[in-house]
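User: My instructor asked us to take a sequence, write out its structure as C-alpha cells, and then describe one feature of it. I'm not sure where to start. Here is the sequence I was given:
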Amino acid sequence: MRPTLVILAAGMGSRYHGLKQFDPIGPNQEILMDFAVFDAIRAGFGKVVFVIQKSNKNFFQKTIASRYFNHIEIDYAFQDLMNLPPGFQAHPLRIKPWGTGHAVLCSRKVVKEPFAVINADDFYGRTSFEIMNRALLQMNSDSRQLCMIGFPLGNTLSDHGPVSRGICSVENGILRALTERKKIERKNGQICYQDQAGKLLTLEPSMIVSMTFWGFSPNVLFPLLEKQFLQFLADFSAETSREFYLPDVIDSAIKSKIAEVKVLSTPECWLGLTFPEDKASAQEHIKQKFETGIYPRKMFEITN
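Assistant: Let's start with the prediction itself. The C-alpha cells for your sequence are:
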C-alpha cells in the first residue's frame, strides 16, 4: 500500500493577511500546494488528504483540487471548532482553530496507511518527498519508529519578521527532544529568540528544526492524539486562543518512550510564506527551479 500525504490547509494565515495557501507563486500561477502534490506524485505517494475548513470545500474543489483529479486519489478531512469529543464545546468567543495536532486528528477517518504530514504553505523540495516516501514504505501501520524531515535553522528564517520553530535535539539520527521556540529572527549577525521572560537568547544556524514534514504510522499516532487532545480540552477548552500543537504531542511520545523518531536529512532548501514580503523571494526561488528543469513548464493543466 502506497503512503498518503496529509496537507494541512485549514489555517487562515493571520500574519500573511489572507489565504496564503492559494497565493500564486510559480510562473504559471502555481501555488505552493501544486509543488507539494506534484512532488508527492513523482515520489510515489498514492493519495492526498486535504485538511480544510468545511466552508471552503466547494471553493477548494473547484479552484485547487480539480487540477489533481486525474493524477492522484484525493480525499478530505475537515477541521472545525465544533469537531470535538463528546462532552466538550468551544468557548463562544473562540475563532482560532485548535492547532496542528487537532488538524491531523481530524484526518483519522480517512487515513489508514503510513502517512506524511506537511503544511500547505511550505515548499519542501522534490528530494524531501522521495526520502519520506522511502521511509514510509518501510513502515507498517503499527510501527513505533516515526520520522521527520529536518532542515538547518539558518535555512528556514524570514528576512521580514520573527518566526516560530521546533528546535530538535538529535542524537545518532534519532530525535531526543523537540522544543518550540518563538520570535526567532536574525539580529546583529546572530539568530536570536525571546524566552518567556523576554530575554534574548542565541541559537546556532546549524541546529535542526522541524518544518512540519512528519511521517507516521496511523495506529500509533491517532490514539496518542486522541488521548492528549482529551487532556488538552480538559485543561484549556475554556480558553479562546491556546492551541494543541503536533510537536508537543511528538515530544511527549519521545519522552514517554511510546515512539522513536528518525530524523531524515535533506539537501533541499525550505521555502515558506510567513509575511507578505516573503512572496518576492519565493517567486524568484521557484522561477529558478523551472529554469533548471526541476519542474516542467506546466505541472498540471491549471484551470480556474
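For the description part of your assignment, you could build on this observation: The mean pLDDT is 90. Try explaining in your own words what that tells you about the chain.
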